[in-house]
Amino acid sequence: MSKDKKDFKFYLVREDILPEAIKKTIKVKEILKHGEARTINDAVCMMNLSRSAYYKYKDYVLPFYDVMQGKLVTLSVTLSDRPGKLSQVLNTVADSNGSILTINQGIPLQGTANVSISVETKEMDISVEDLVRRLKTLSGVQHVHIIGQV
User: Fold this and answer.
1) Is residue 6, in this structure, part of any structural domain at all?
2) With contact defined as beta carbons under 8 Å apart, do 103 and 115 qualify?
3) Domain check: are 57 and 98 in the same one?
4) Which of 3, 9, 91, 98 could form a disulfide linkage to 119, CB 3.0–4.6 angstroms apart?
5) Contact 145, 75 (CB under 8 A)
């Protein structure tokens, strides 16, 4: 029986309860996306996963943030009030091929500045989750949160 797309239900499930084959399939997809393996066969061998299991699940599992690709994401970023910190954030988004649509910055108070940035993620070469991770590692970035998505 074939179901229309509108008949499918989607669930948000914590990774730790997923079967190993599904976790490994997700990892194989990440390996391929990041160019860590030349072929699907190389990637499944790296993860000790059968090719048949990979092909069974590959079209049905996506990391949560990958579902947001091609969308607008608004980030809330708390920065140290020091010269160049906002520039670092903007450059990181640009280096990931994210297109910055809006920037709203409040007046810095007590050494911190709050900024909200809306980003078009359609052309990004990394996931939104990876972008958030990269931003969090920048010197002077205190907090990064996704506050909205369209």
Assistant:
1) no
2) yes
3) no
4) 98
5) yes
Terminal CA-CA length for the chain: 32
Residue pair 45/51 in contact by the 8 Å Cβ criterion: no
Residue 118 CB contacts under 8 Å (≥ 6 apart), including other chains: 72, 73, 74, 75, 100, 101, 102
Polymer length in residues for the chain:
150
Structural domains counted in the chain: 2
Per-residue pLDDT tens over the stretch 26-83: 999 989 988 899 999 999 999 999 999 999 999 888 776 555 555 889 999 999 999 9
Could you tell me the residue range of the domain that residue 25 belongs to?
Answer: 15-61
